TrEMBL record:
Membrane-protein topology: Multi-pass membrane protein
Lineage of producing organism: Eukaryota, Viridiplantae, Streptophyta, Embryophyta, Tracheophyta
Domain Major facilitator superfamily (MFS) profile residues, every copy: 108-427
TM helices/strands, residue ranges: 148-168, 200-222, 234-254, 266-285, 348-369, 381-403
Protein name per UniProt: Major facilitator superfamily (MFS) profile domain-containing protein
Length: 427
């Protein structure tokens, strides 16, 4: 999303001579005060203009019957267009309305969210071409096998999500991103070259493993490199990346309506973002939290200074030290303790939110929407599915805007309320 801001600047040509009134001011308790003002004319040079005012003040102190001027001061108003000083002040005032603290972190967050782009891409890659794939690999009409080919992706994602955290803690976030691209690239290549359904299933399974690792790694990495103030907004890039990947594959898949072999090209194209992540992570920073966790405090300090600014270094390091001390002193919590009365609330609510979202049926829509639209009489199911993905993107962009303004709880309650009402309307 690109935001464009436009501004019109008014100008003027000349200011007439300012004059003081000739009559002396009246006496008030021995002190005469006169305020004289003149308003200069203005000319229109563009579609808008403004009026320049100049005032002169004269103060008189009365020591006799006739007042005598003792002080005279002119206040000059600078030309806001031609004055260098005024322009500098205007620029600073305008800049103060914009908060650019997120900019240093943004390239690193974008690189990480490219992994979520692949999630969306592979999530929708079977949406349109499934019939062509089934026909070419000789399982057309076998709905159970068709569903298995699609769902194998999720089986691999489940395994990857379990193992991803351990890997990220051992070798670091950046190297985990790069290592994780191996099953993604291999699985995509197997899918693109498959000549039977078994190879396709293996390829989808490997891709799922890579996606599962990314699913937990991307939000962790972004939250650890982003300043606290911007974690909510930058964290929304995870979902935005998924939506963009889904939109991309659905639009790129439109030719599959006419070309039954186009699905192989879709898989080959899916390797491009994996290569970009490998290259991008060579230039991305490591998580300062992970660096502090393994004792590399100097590197953690450099990353914080680079991304958060000098003013945040001490407070951030103190937070990391406190977290490290807490981790050292606290005993490891078992699964039984996690579900105890003291701890159960947060994991139960968090897990329930994810689970209930899946029960809303969104995955079924994303996997088979093209077939559904075709059955409903829509001529181009892939294009119609792309509009569904655009609606998903609009929701993610709304979260990006409202997350840090309205809070997580209000956003969740609002979105789930909307889902309930819309699902009821479909009955």
């Amino acid at each position: 999303m690109m935001l464009a801001a436009g501004a019109s600047i008014a100008s003027f040509s000349s200011v007439e001579q300012l004059f003081l009134p000739k009559s002396p001011p009246p006496r008030v308790d021995g002190v005469h005060l006169s305020l004289h003002a003149a308003i200069g004319n203005h000319q229109r040079r563009s579609s808008s203009s403004f009026l320049l005012h100049a005032r002169r003040f004269s103060t008189y102190a009365s020591v006799s019957e006739d007042p005598a001027p003792v002080q005279h001061q002119d206040i000059h108003i600078k030309d806001p267009i031609n004055s260098t000083e005024a322009s500098s002040e205007d620029e600073q005032r305008v800049a103060s309305h914009f908060d650019w603290g997120w900019v240093p972190t943004f390239p690193h967050a974008i690189t990480a969210s490219m992994a979520n782009f692949m999630f969306g891409y592979h999530l929708g890659i079977m949406n349109g071409p499934l019939i062509s794939i089934a026909h070419e690999l000789n399982f057309e009409g076998d709905t159970i096998l068709e569903g298995f080919v699609v769902s194998t992706f999720l089986v691999g994602a489940f395994i990857g999500s379990i193992s991803g955290g351990v890997l990220a803690d051992r070798i670091g976030r950046r190297r985990t991103f790069q290592l994780d691209m191996a099953p993604l690239i291999l699985g995509t290549a197997l899918s693109a070259t498959s000549e039977n359904v078994n190879v396709m299933i293996v390829g989808r399974f490997l891709v799922g493993i890579g996606i599962g690792v990314n699913a937990g790694l991307v939000p962790v990495y972004i939250s650890e490199v982003a300043p606290t103030k911007y974690r909510g907004g930058l964290g929304s890039l995870c979902q935005i990346g998924t939506c963009l990947g889904l939109i991309a594959v659905l639009i790129l898949g439109i030719p599959s309506e006419a070309d039954p072999h186009w699905w192989r090209s879709l898989f080959w194209i899916g390797m491009i973002p994996a290569v970009l992540v490998i290259l991008g992570m060579e230039f991305a920073v490591e998580s300062p939290r992970w660096l502090s966790k393994v004792g590399r405090w100097a590197e953690a300090e450099n990353v914080i200074r680079q991304l958060w600014g000098d003013s945040s270094v001490e407070s951030a390091l103190e937070e990391l030290r406190s977290a490290a001390k807490l981790a050292e002193s606290a005993a490891e919590i078992s699964w039984s303790e996690l579900m105890s009365k003291r701890y159960y609330k947060a994991p139960v609510i968090g897990s329930a939110l994810f689970a209930l979202q899946q029960f809303a049926g969104i995955n079924g829509v994303l996997y088979f929407s093209s077939l559904t639209f075709r059955d409903a009489g829509v001529s181009n199911g892939m294009l119609a599915s792309a509009f569904v993905a655009v609606a998903n993107l609009l929701g993610a962009l709304s979260a990006l805007y409202f997350m840090d303004r309205q809070g997580r709880r209000n956003c969740l309650m609002g979105s789930y309320t909307g889902m309930v009402l819309l699902l009821i309307s479909l009955i």
